[in-house]
TrEMBL record:
Belongs to the non-repetitive/WGA-negative nucleoporin family. It comes from the Eukaryota. Its main location: nucleus. It comes from Nicrophorus vespilloides. It is found in: Nucleus. InterPro entries: Nucleoporin_Nup133/Nup155_C, Nucleoporin_Nup133/Nup155_N, Nucleoporin_Nup155, Nucleoporin_Nup155_C_1, Nucleoporin_Nup155_C_2, Nucleoporin_Nup155_C_3. This is Nuclear pore complex protein Nup155. Pfam families: Nucleoporin_C (PF03177), Nucleoporin_N (PF08801). Keywords: Membrane, Nucleus, Transmembrane, Transmembrane helix, Transport. Coiled coil: none annotated. Residues 71-490 form the Nucleoporin Nup133/Nup155-like N-terminal domain. Residues 637-1284 form the Nucleoporin Nup133/Nup155-like C-terminal domain.
Length: 1325
């Protein structure tokens, strides 16, 4: 499952980090090796120093067999005699003969008078000669030509000088299959010839860029400058004298020689790494020339005489005779990669080495200056000057120095002896300790040179190299050739690993004293690392040596230990007897001047995905032991440390190397190219693969030597022996995983380099390219899984883009990096190829077969597919069912137990595992919704159905695809589709879905987001369409009650009304609670209607009441109960009519309150009217009529007696027509008898009211009652005979009572007349 994969990747990253931290410590350990300055104890404060006078400087190798001691430095590889055809020419020599070596082209040369012969010194073959000169050859040199001057077939320039001319010949080779220097050819016609002007050239050298310098017998340094063609400003070739002024060409050479001392140049040396030239004269003077920062200029710096150097050396070593310091017989340039501050080594005839600097006292932390002086820094005495040894070299006449290795030839009793002095066996000691070897030569040495190779492709010449023991696995043994009169003597300088191999062969891998001594000298962990070179790399060629080395590795590798103070304090041991070596001294140099002595912190993690690449700080810091921490409780075994040392040394060249660099191929556009080429990748991969095989075959690396780990009873603190063994076991397991992973990553990188790496990188996004530029190989190895996946995809896509089959590259990637490119990756690549092929297929059956095949491949490897990319391709080819099938299968693999669906249904927020499964499945279903997006966005899409080709709109296709999706019994897939339909507002289509999962989704969605009106709206419609009216009514009720401003009061009333309708449509009788709910809905609707009336009233107050707007918003925002409506709105805003409505709704019966409400209603209406008399009264009655009709059925809201009294009082005040009020009540269809009784009671109460007397209208009620009876008279036909007789009797009694009261009153004639008329009418009825 994907979660398991994520956890596994995190665990693998932690394991890789553990191994990487050990590797970092090993790199720091190697970087802290003492530099040449450290070992010579040179610092700005000390001044020139000396060494070689102590027994420690040239220690005895106690314990090694004498046969090994005698060849610890050099081993004769072969002795090749001079070719017979050359020996014949010796008999014809007349006056002059010279011999020399061109190791650049594996040739030796011999001049006999004016002829030169060249042959291969390793086999004495391929003899070539040149006899086109007439003068005796004085000096010979081989120079690499300048770029662009000669034809490409001119590989070198052979420079021959005579007393008259300097002749330059072209050298070409007929390249063989494997050897580019197989057959030499000397161009017969000279390239150019320059007169010497009397100068006798003695030495010829060339720079790496093709400059040509010659030293002469007159002590001058000449340069031959040349160019492709002659120009107006100069000849094609000319000779310059750099030892004189710029006007020296005006003075003939013979004249200049007559004016100067005779101190000819015998040696010219060039340091191409610093662009400095040195010359040595016959009298031992050394002159320095600066060739400029780029090596294109020249200037004289200083010339130091031999006497000055001798005096300086004697001042440093005052106990010795100054005769030891002269004459100087040889000089050698110290390259920048050996030491940035020591520039030159001068050797005297007695073997004393003078270490010189061109920048005065060495300032360690200052930038490198151009040469300005030549100062003595150190005097190194040869062997024989200590108290215990007296055998010294004498009569040195030839020397070769490089990389702390010195070869010199001395003459002793007319015999030539080769001295080899080297510090390779003691790289980590704080002082310069050297081993010596003497080899007697067959005859006088005529020439000596090193056979140089391109030792490390990844090392820049300006980088300071670590000791040989660190890089011996990557460099072949150094070879030297000495040319004598007998032939070529070829020797090999033994590396520490070569010496170990010789010991293993001699002892047949037995546990001998010699092996013990070797491991003691080298230090166990260093020797274990050396053993691994033989154990892994020798296995294919020499199985016996590999077995011997493996056995020694385990025998001397030791076991881990519980660290004790005694063990930790061994770091502080000092030198004892030089014959007793203290291996632990190698761990800590005396001084820390090394430019490598710096910490190398782990860099941040890189997360490269298809969308984003950001640096992330490693989240896990595992507890790890410290290999070299003296405070650690663990002391790992030497085999553990040796393994990590060896891995660190293999990866050292690339560990902090940037992966890519900018480069241009056409001079216009820049590309990102790999900093490693395929050959360099193959070189590192070879070592890693060999070590991986060793680790796989050596089962002891996974477990301790004892099959059972017993608990140690001897505890130191809280750490036991079992803890230490387990810690080492975990560390070794981490190393095995790291080596395997690194081999796969570099194998992949090699494949990428073979497939136009720059073009692959060009397809990356700009931000991803920038990230790659800041990424080193260490980051790729530790955190680059996503980067590797992206690179693999890019490589596969390049094949697909070229319409090429991916089978071959998939097979190769599976073989090289199976963990980075798994079976499922190969299947996906093949599926991509099939899908690409299907695009171009027109036959529908064939296309369907291809799509089905691709789908089956993808299903077999789900979920380990790039689901998004593969589904996009299926969708592009209208294979929608394939996308659905692939998504569902992937979800099944991710969540086989359906944990995500269980989480969705239960909604337990504490179920983190369930949530993770749910989230992953929803993420998977995004490919389905993305497909729906694509379909939905289409306008007209041509679909083929049953061979026909109708035009089907994207909307119709969407419905069809959704129908197909919902047929799958995957509820979470349904949920994803429902979400998508909601986002597209496909509410109608959603409601028509009959799947029960829709109800679950809508219920869950509304629970999660109860304020989502759209969801609830769809839910009730869904229920209604499925005849579940009761459920729909409840949803509608909830909708109406939602506390949200997006709904207004009108909509809420609509929801309530629809809810009530749904309830009345359903069979409410079968469940009692539904009947109760119906009653509640009815009451709620009534209250809502009251709220609506209040809202309308408040809206009318807007602009007149400052709180009206807020009240309107509140009333629209939710439904209030009846009490809230009364207190918060009706009472607050004096909404009297609304109060009456609230009382009616609530059925409240407070007579005084109701009368007060009516009083205010009438008063407000009276104030609102602007007319007078009858009009005003009519307006008031109209208002009362509307309210009475509204509340006519109410038993409390219409106080008739109060209204009669109030309205008649207002009528009297307004002096309105007395018939208006009675007729008004009659028009309201109140019973006549009720009205007569009410008026009688009201008239009786009015007798006590002084108002009527004050208004002089005491007969108002009499007129009103007369009008009331008269109204009955006019409407008597409406009543039945029984009711009519009853009402006539009441009316007659009323009229009689009124007449009896009026007869005694003045001014009542008109009323009496009216009443009598009414009485007569009643009598006739």
């Amino acid at each position: 499952m994907e979660q398991t994969m994520d956890n596994s990747r995190a665990l693998n990253t932690e394991v890789l980090q553990l191994a990487a931290r050990h590797i970092e410590k090993c790199l720091i350990k190697d970087n802290n090796a003492p530099t040449l300055l450290d070992q010579l104890n040179i610092n700005p404060q000390s001044g020139p120093t000396a060494s070689g006078l102590s027994d420690h400087d040239y220690p005895a190798l106690v314990g090694l067999p004498q046969s090994i001691i005698s060849r610890t430095q050099m081993k004769t590889l072969s002795k090749v005699p001079l070719p017979p055809e050359i020996m014949e020419h010796f008999n014809h020599m007349q006056c002059h003969c010279m011999m020399g070596l061109f190791t650049e082209i594996n040739r030796a040369w011999l001049t006999i008078d004016s002829d030169i012969y060249v042959w291969t010194y390793d086999d004495g073959g391929d003899v070539a000669y040149y006899d086109g000169l007439n003068e005796t050859i004085i000096s010979v040199g081989l120079v690499k030509p300048k770029s662009g001057v000669f034809q490409n077939f001119i590989n070198y320039l052979l420079v021959l000088t005579t007393a008259v001319d300097v002749v330059v010949l072209g050298v070409t080779f007929a390249a063989g299959d494997e050897d580019s220097l197989k057959e030499i050819q000397l161009v017969s016609d000279p390239v150019f010839t320059i007169p010497t002007d009397g100068a006798m050239m003695t030495s010829i050298v060339g720079t790496a860029t093709g400059r040509m310098f010659l030293g002469s017998k007159d002590g001058c340094l000449y340069e031959i400058t040349y160019q492709a063609e002659s120009t107006w400003f100069g000849k094609r070739c000319k000779k310059l004298n750099h030892s004189t002024s710029k006007l020296s060409f005006l003075v003939p050479s013979f004249a200049y020689a007559a004016m100067t001392d005779d101190d000819g140049i015998v040696q010219v040396v060039i340091d191409d790494t610093r662009h400095i030239l040195y010359t040595l004269t016959e009298k031992g003077a050394i002159e320095v020339y600066d060739l400029g920062e780029n090596g294109t200029s020249i200037s004289r710096v200083i010339k130091v005489s031999q006497n000055q150097l001798v005096q300086q050396a004697h001042n440093v070593v005052k106990t010795l005779d100054s005769q030891n310091f002269h004459p100087i017989v040889s000089i050698s340039a110290v390259e920048l990669c050996e030491s940035p501050r020591i520039n030159l080594v001068a050797l005297t005839q007695s073997g004393v080495r003078l270490y010189l600097s061109t920048s005065g006292q060495a300032q360690v932390n200052m930038p490198l200056p151009r040469p300005s002086t030549l100062a003595l820094q150190h005097v190194r005495m040869p062997p024989g000057y200590s108290a215990s040894t007296h055998y010294r070299p004498k009569n040195i006449h030839m020397a070769e120095y490089r990389d702390r290795n010195l070869l010199m030839v001395s003459t002793v009793n007319e015999k030539e002896v080769l001295w080899s002095i080297s510090s390779d066996l003691f790289p980590f000691y704080p002082i310069l300790m050297e081993a010596t070897t003497n080899i007697e030569l067959d005859g006088p040495a005529l020439a000596m040179a090193e056979i140089k190779y391109n030792t490390n492709m990844l090392l820049q010449p300006t980088q300071q190299v670590p000791p040989l023991i660190v890089r011996q696995h990557s460099e072949p043994p150094r070879k030297f050739v000495i040319l004598t009169s007998q032939g070529a003597h070829i020797l090999m300088k033994l590396r520490p690993v070569d010496l170990l191999k010789q010991l293993l062969v001699d002892t047949r891998g037995q546990d001998s004293d010699a092996l013990k001594a070797y491991f003691n000298i080298q230090n166990d962990e260093q020797a274990c690392a050396t053993s691994l070179i033989l154990a892994s790399l020798e296995a294919p060629q020499n199985l016996d040596v590999a077995d011997y080395a493996t056995n020694a590795f385990f025998v001397f590798g030791g076991e881990p230990k519980v660290a004790t103070p005694a063990i930790n304090n061994t770091m502080n041991q000092t030198f004892g007897n030089p014959s007793i070596f203290l291996p632990n001294m190698m761990s800590t140099p005396m001084q820390q001047h090394s430019p490598f002595a710096q910490t190398m912190p782990m860099t941040p993690q890189v997360n490269f995905t298809a969308n984003s690449i950001t640096p992330v700080v490693p989240h896990f810091q595992p507890n790890m032991s410290h290999m070299y921490d003296p405070n650690s409780q663990y002391q790992f075994s030497s085999k553990h440390n040796g393994l990590y040392l060896y891995v660190a040394r293999i990866l050292r060249p690339i560990w902090n190397l940037r992966c890519v660099e900018k480069m241009t191929f056409d001079g216009k556009r820049f590309y990102l190219t790999s900093t490693l080429n395929s050959e360099e990748c193959a070189w590192i991969l070879c070592h890693l693969t060999s070590l991986r095989i060793f680790l796989q075959q050596t089962t002891q690396m996974a477990i301790c030597n004892n099959t059972t780990v017993a608990k140690s009873t001897n505890k130191t603190g809280n750490c036991t022996m079992q803890d230490v063994q387990l810690e080492e076991r975990h560390s070794l397991d981490a190393l095995k995983m790291f080596v395997d992973h690194a081999a796969q990553v570099l194998g992949l990188w090699k494949v990428l380099c073979e497939h136009q790496f720059h073009m692959l990188m060009d397809t990356f996004q700009a931000e991803h390219q920038q990230v790659m530029q800041n990424t080193c190989f260490k980051d790729i190895l530790l955190y680059g899984h996503d980067v590797c996946a992206t690179l693999i995809n890019t490589l596969i896509n390049s094949y697909l883009g070229d319409n090429a089959s991916v089978d071959s590259i998939s097979s190769k990637l599976r073989e090289i990096c199976p963990n980075l490119y798994k079976n499922e990756d190969a299947a996906c690549s093949k599926a991509n190829e099939i899908l690409k092929t299907a695009k171009n297929v027109n036959n529908l059956d064939e296309k369907e077969e291809l799509l089905s095949s691709a789908l089956q491949l993808c299903i077999e490897v789900v979920p380990n597919v790039n689901l998004k990319e593969i589904c996009e391709q299926f969708s592009t080819q209208k294979s929608y069912n394939a996308v659905i099938m692939l998504a569902t299968k992937c979800a099944e693999k991710i969540d086989p137990e359906n944990v995500g669906e269980h989480f969705y249904k239960n909604g337990d927020q504490n179920d983190q595992e369930g949530y993770q499964y749910y989230a992953k499945r929803i993420e998977i279903y995004k490919v389905v919704t993305a497909m729906l997006d694509d379909i939905y966005s289409q306008n007209d899409v041509t679909q083929n159905i049953n061979g026909q080709v109708p035009v089907e709109t994207g909307e119709n296709i969407t419905r069809r695809v959704i129908s197909s999706i919902l047929k799958h019994k995957d509820e979470l897939l349904h949920i994803a589709v429902y979400e998508w339909m909601m986002s597209k507002q496909m509410n109608g289509e959603l409601i028509s879905v009959t799947e029960p999962t829709l109800e679950t989704y809508l219920l869950k969605a509304t629970q999660h987001n109860p304020s989502n009106i759209s969801l609830m709206d769809i839910l009730w419609k869904y229920y209604e369409s499925n005849n579940n009216h009761a459920a729909a009514a409840k949803v509608l009720n909830n909708l109406a009650s939602v506390n949200q401003t997006s709904l207004n009061m009108k909509t809420r009333l609509s929801y309530l009304a629809r809810s009530l309708m749904c309830m009345r449509s359903d069979k409410i009788g079968y469940a009692p609670y539904l009947g109760v709910f119906l009653r509640e809905l009815e009451d709620k609707l009534e209250v809502a209607k009251v709220q609506e009336r209040i809202l309308e009233a408040i809206v009318n107050l807007k602009g007149r009441h400052m709180e009206a707007d807020a009240a309107e918003k509140m009333l629209n925002g939710k439904l209030f109960d009846i009490t809230q409506l009364y207190e918060d709105f009706a009472e607050k805003f004096n909404l009297w009519e609304c109060k009456l409505a609230i009382i009616d709704c609530a059925g409240y019966s407070d007579k005084l309150l109701i009368e007060n409400i009516w009083r205010n209603i009438l008063q407000n209406e009276l104030c609102r009217s602007t007319s007078s008399g009858n009009d005003k009264m009519i307006q008031i009655l109209t208002k009362v009529k509307s309210l009475v009709r509204l509340y006519k059925t109410s038993s409390t809201c219409i106080p008739l007696d109060y209204l009669v009294q109030e309205l008649e009082l207002i009528s009297a005040k307004l002096k309105a027509d007395t018939t208006l009020v009675p007729n008004f009540f009659v028009s309201l269809e109140y019973p006549i008898d009720l009205l007569i009784n009410t008026y009688n009671e009201s008239m009786i109460r009015s007798l006590k009211d002084n108002f009527w007397l004050a208004e002089e209208n005491e007969f108002h009620y009499s007129e009103a009652m007369a009008a009331l009876v008269n109204a009955f008279v006019h409407l008597h036909d409406k009543y039945s005979n029984v009711e009519k007789r009853k009402l006539i009797a009441i009316s007659q009694d009323t009229v009689a009572g009124l007449l009896s009261n009026l007869y005694s009153k003045p001014n009542t004639e008109h009323i009496i007349t009216l009443l009598r008329s009414i009485q007569n009418k009643l009598s006739r009825m």
